[in-house]
Amino acid sequence: MAKDRSTEALELSEEILRNFELNEIPTQNIVLKCLRLARLTNDTEGITWLRHEAHGFDRDSQGNLTTEAWESIKKSGRYFYVEDTDKKTQQPKKVQRSFTHTIAVLEASMASLKAQMAVSYDPNISLPENTNYFLTQRAVQGNNAQRNAISQNVAEYSKRIETVKSRLYDYVSNINYELKFGEITEDIFSRKRKFVDNKLKDISPKSIQKFVSVYENLKSSNNEDWANAVHTCRRIIKEVADVLYPPSDELITLPSGKKIKVGEEQYINRLIQYIESKSDSGSFKAIVGSNLEFIGNRLDGIHNAANKGTHTEVTLEEAERYIIYTYLLIGDILSL
């Protein structure tokens, strides 16, 4: 069975972090894995950035870095500042510069420098006692200047490579945490959904069918279908109210003396009355407590969202949010 994208992305992020921490593969290979991770998570900005890191930074017809390339350079920390030598002022202006070699080139250069360092040693020599002083000094000095120059280059290339690697590591680490948190959240909601579905099967089987319809509407790219999904949530809540507290023509007198209707369309009032009737139970104190107004506000919010779905446009994000609210609300009520 094929893995879903989030599962594959989580596994890939774990693999990349291990590659970093155990230094298992060259960084240029890790960059390509990071690019794959960005594609799996639909991170368009990350794709542009990592494409530059993998294949080079784009330039315009004049040879200047493009705006996108500069954004990628900043994201990688590839910039530094130098004094502008063209302007003779009392206070020299700092100008921004960057290094644009790909990681593959940087690592190849580093390997070359280390190879040069390995052969840049001073051979054992023996000079006669009467050897010219200047020749003696030159022989003693040997390849010291060359080694110093190579060491400075190695230090500079190491700094550049580590700068980019740290940005890549942070990027993958952040995605890893986001995916893990999303997995935990999804697992929590899945448990709540399973509980609600099992309860609804006993008291209102038709509500299960309506939730299936809700999910189908969410897959659509049409905002009218998203509005229908929210409207269906209202009908689901009403069906639950019809089972738990059937409509009545009689008015209910509240402790304040106010009378309220609990008829066919007053399903919010009916659900609140049902919750109130459970106020002596231990589960009521644990789940709802005395904050009955909060439950009422949630019911009103979903009711208003359903009305909004009837008359105005609803975004996919709004539809998803109210569907989650519906599940959580019904779960709380059915737990009483």
Outline:
The chain has 336 residues and is mainly alpha-helical. The protein has 2 domains: 5-82 and 94-179, no CATH class; 204-334. Helices cover 69% and strands 6% of the residues.
Describe this structure in words.
The protein has helices at about 5-20, 25-40, 45-55, 65-75, 105-120, 135-140, 145-205, 205-220, 225-245, 265-275, 280-285, 290-310, 315-335, and strands at about 80-85, 95-100, 250-255, 260. The chain is mainly α and about 325 residues long. The chain folds into 2 domains: about 5-80 and about 95-180, no CATH class; about 205-335. It has a two-stranded antiparallel sheet with strand order 1-2. A two-stranded antiparallel ribbon has the order 3-4. A hairpin with a 5-residue loop joins strand 3 and strand 4 (about 260). Mean pLDDT is about 80; it is low at about 130-135.
Instruction: Output the strand order for the largest sheet.
Output: 1-2
Described by strand count, sense and barrel closure, the largest sheet is: 2 strands, antiparallel
Shape: elongated
Q: How many alpha or pi helices?
A: 13
The radius of gyration is 34 Å
Give the low-pLDDT segments.
131-137
Instruction: State the end-to-end distance.
Output: 39 Å
State the total count of DSSP E strands: 4
**What's the overall average pLDDT, rounded?**
81
SSE arrangement:
Elements: H1 5-21, H2 27-40, H3 44-55, H4 67-76, E1 79-83, E2 94-98, H5 103-119, H6 133-141, H7 144-203, H8 205-218, H9 223-244, E3 248-253, E4 259-262, H10 267-277, H11 282-287, H12 292-311, H13 316-334
